[in-house]
Amino acid sequence: MQFLIIYLACFAFICSSNGSVVKKGYFWQVTDFHYDANYSTNGNPNTMCHSDGGKSHSNSIYGNYLCDSPMKLIISAIDAMQSIHPNPDFIFWTGDSVPHVNNSDLDQTKIYYNIGNVTEQLMKVFPNTSIYPVLGNHDEYPKDAFPPGATSYYSDILTVSQWSKLLGENEATVFKTGGYYSSLLNPNLLVLGLNTNLYYGFNPLTQNSTDPSGQLKWLEKQFKQAQISQKKVIIISHIPPGLFELFSGLMWFSNNFNEKYVHLVSQYSGIIAAQIYGHEHTDSFRILKDRSGTPSGMLFLSPAVTPWKSTLPGVGSNNPSIRLYEYNRDTGEILDYHQYFLNLATVITTNKDIWQKEYDAKSDYGLTSLNPVDFMQAAQSFRNSPKLFKKYLQYNSVSQNLNPVCNDTCKRVHVCSITELRMSDFNDCLNKPNPTLNPEPHSHPHTTPRPKAHVPRYMVIVICTLAGTVFVLAVIVAIICIKKHTVFIPHQYSRFSSPVGKGPIN
């Protein structure tokens, strides 16, 4: 009986919330295509690989580090997604399909058709997969100038750019009010597709607004409803809150919007399973904290498909990338993600588009899980672990820069950008003697909680299997003893022991 109880207890642990067989699913994130219809293999790389007055240049059919994506690269990326994992639960497409060209080279109609061309490619390769899109800051004309309120722009994205084929009727109705929506991924999980371009510091149309398009009020309502109905939420958007890790002091949102947004997502971090963004073109992550400074949420920042070299000093280019996530279908928890890339340097010489895995987040960062406490410990270890930090820097450029150089100031900016989402906290972090040891905001001293002791799942299974085997053997021995008319006497410290010679108690 004792062994039976142990066996059942182990089995119950495996089937409990902490040790259950997770309902694992997969989804893709693809971002920042920046499709340039004017890309030419004979174009001048110094002018976005466009024509050069009859002069001939030699560019790969799949792109150039100084230029945006040709259609060949976009098709290659989407085909690679289909080849690597053809049946994802869904796809998150996190914005920016329009190239980095002057406004004078574009107009509103070109914007719509540019986005529509990418929409068609995704639907063609994944005809039976739900695709959830959000707008990027370049997906408007002029760029960055996203209007607050219901305008024809949002309606035309649905019709001309064909997003009405991706979003349901209810989602499309909400989208018309400001470019955002909510949709059920499954009965337990809600996706909130946001238009954070409304909060962009370079958006001239919303700087005097308190809540452009009413999105913050709507967002809080969605959080409250999810809380009541016991649903988890995944946020997807283009521009993330916080600061850019490669350019000290550059915060994407206007400060007032950043404060409001970070406060809101921190307040409801208990129901937010993950936040997923694009925009930066680099590979990084951010850690959300609650009011006490405890890590409470993760922001995953995926790198771009376009290899385009940023105009910001020191930022550089990246290799084209796509990202596959593993997640818990019940809770939305991100279990792991797998980064894939196209080594453009090799492609330029061979013209062969061979996509390969760059890394697995969990194993390559040495994490037991992808929760914010584990990621905080990883970020804190960057200062004292040059090898791990160098690995992060390499991944930051999608392995375009294999020998990154980063001095102590550079390292501080990286770590403080990862661990602090508010400008004041970021500045405090930079000025601390060792920002990796005390990255918490404000002046409330505390220590980052250690993660709970974690027993590997395979050990649980081994222990339970052994317990079950012992139980079976005990039953066999008991049967043999009974057949031989021998009294079975349990161990003297057994909870179920009985007086010698009186037999077991039933």
Describe this structure in words.
It contains 14 helices and twelve strands. The protein is an alpha/beta fold and 506 residues long. The chain has one domain: Purple Acid Phosphatase, chain A, domain 2, CATH 3.60.21. The strands form two sheets. It has a six-stranded mixed beta sheet. The protein has a six-stranded mixed beta sheet with strand order 4-5-6-7-9-8, sandwiched between helices. β4 and β5 (189-193) form a beta hairpin. α2 runs parallel beside α3 (108-125). 41% of the residues are buried. GO terms for molecular function: metal ion binding; phosphoric diester hydrolase activity. Residues 28-282 form the Calcineurin-like phosphoesterase domain. Residues 1-19 form the signal peptide.
- CATH-scheme architecture: 4-Layer Sandwich
β-strand number: 12
How many domains make up the coordinates? 1
Mean pLDDT: 86
Q: What's the alpha carbon Rg, rounded to whole Å?
A: 27 Å
Portion of residues in beta strands equals 5-15%
Shape: globular
Instruction: List the total number of helices.
Output: 14
The secondary-structure element order is HEHEHEHHEEHEHEEEEEHEHHHHHH
CATH class designation: Alpha Beta
Family: Belongs to the acid sphingomyelinase family.
GO molecular function: metal ion binding; phosphoric diester hydrolase activity
GO cellular component, one term: extracellular space
Enzyme class: hydrolase
